Amino acid sequence: MEKYEQLLNMLMDFNESVRFAAVSDAGGQLLWNSQRNGVSNIVPMEKTKTTMSRSRSEWDDYASSAEHIGNGMYSITSYAKIKRITIPLPDGKMLFISVNNKPMKNAKNTSYGHLVQMGEILSIVEFVESQNF
Amino acid sequence: MSRYEKLLHMLMDYDATIMFTAIGDTSGNILWNTIRDDSKVQIPLPEIKKTLVRESKDWISRCKIEDSDDLGRALYHIASFEKIKQVTIPLDAFHLLMVYVDNTPLKKTKTKSYGRYVEMGKIMSIVDFVNTFEE
Predict the structure, then answer these.
(1) Does any domain span residue B85?
(2) Residue A77: which of B62, B72, B73 has the nearest Cβ?
(3) What CA dihedral angle connects B89, B90, B91 and B96, to 10 degrees?
């Protein structure tokens, strides 16, 4: 199994709120993807591909500012129903994750969605990158 | 003082790791901004202006997605870099809030640090609170 396929499987196992995970190439084209069983698409796949391509070019833009702000680590775009996470990978590839963001039913105050454990996700990515597949 | 100027001051008072705040229009022009003088990370103003123009365009795309897809309200965007976290929040149809937060790891971190935690719930609640003010 290719290492990025392994990465997608590990992310799916890591947290049930992960709905969809995918890796794109440097041009933003989808290479591998994984969708949780029983979870239906909120967004059609073609639109997700467009979003991934746009996100990939955002990281290209950010790279021009690296001298001042450092290298890019991840991005989170939060909508009321989902969070979209992107992480730049080596060779221009990019990891894209869609996470459930619907508020918990028992939230007392206004909820702005679920906390995403980015430290855990980044450590999974680094672990997979360090392995020889 | 406009409510959005108050918002910038409230954010600066809320957390010392907030280094810079700005409110831009849909073209990315800075309308109001605040800078923390003793910030460790210095970002040139032209770089900030360039970023705000880019983020304004990106938010127009994201809001189109919000309209066309069933994702619910677009809340915020965080881009995390080694030195800073860049947070953008659409305030209304014409204004975008941009916040730079210091993201340099704390010195006493035992395990590998991926930067600092940003309390988006608190920041969003300040934004929602200020949005209840009448001009």
Answers:
(1) yes
(2) B62
(3) 90
Nearest to B114 among A65, A70, A118 (CB): A118
CA separation for the pair A46, B40 (Å, rounded): 43
User: Cβ of B124 and A112 within 8 Å?
Assistant: yes
Instruction: Check CB contact under 8 Å for A70 and B121.
Output: no
Distance, in Å, from the CA atom of B20 to the CA atom of B35, rounded to the nearest integer, reads 5
pLDDT for A21-69, tens place per residue?
999 999 889 999 999 988 888 888 888 898 999 999 999 988 888 999 9
Provide the ipTM: 0.90
Could you tell me the domains of chain A?
A: 3-128 (3.30.450.30)
Task: Identify the bridge partners of residue A79 per DSSP, sorted by sequence position.
Answer: B74
Contact yes or no for B81 and A66 at CB 8 A: yes
